[in-house]
Amino acid sequence: VQLVESGGGLVQAGGSLRISCVVSGGRFSSATMGWYRQAPGKQREFVASITSGGSTNHADSVKGRFTISRDNAKNTVYLQMNILKPEDTAVYYCNWGYLWGQGTQVTVSS
Fold first, then answer.
1. What is the spatial distance between Cα 37 and Cα 44, in angstroms, rounded to a whole number?
2. Helix, strand, or coil here: 30?
């Protein structure tokens, strides 16, 4: 099973970005998928998760700004990020159980 993130980049504060994670192998439709992030000098932290049934959970720090979603036909999980803040700058990682992607860098300039 492989998790490959994409879509990161540089965006101004207040802007939006959508990152994606494509999963190859495994039964994606049965998986609870998550997004985590790690800023320089900080521990990796939970951002959002989505169950196989579509139930979602978002960290308080991103609630109302970020939305996790999935497309089982494409084996892809998304993170739509709106009203981005400089403190959202981090490497964002896709997660499935003990599996992690390589991460995608999101940088928000002030």
1. 5
2. helix
Cβ–Cβ under 8 Å, residues 34 and 94:
yes
Query: Six-digit token pair at 42?
Result: 């900080």
Q: What tens digit of pLDDT does each residue of 74-108 get?
A: 999 999 999 999 999 999 999 999 999 999 999 99
φ, ψ dihedrals at 55, nearest 5°: -70, 135
Q: Are 62 and 76 in contact (CB under 8 A)?
A: no
Name 18's bridge partners.
80
- Cα–Cα dist 47/62, whole Å: 7
Pairing of strands 104-109, 9-12: parallel
State both tokens at 62: 């991103």
In the numeric block, the tokens 């998760």 are attached to 49
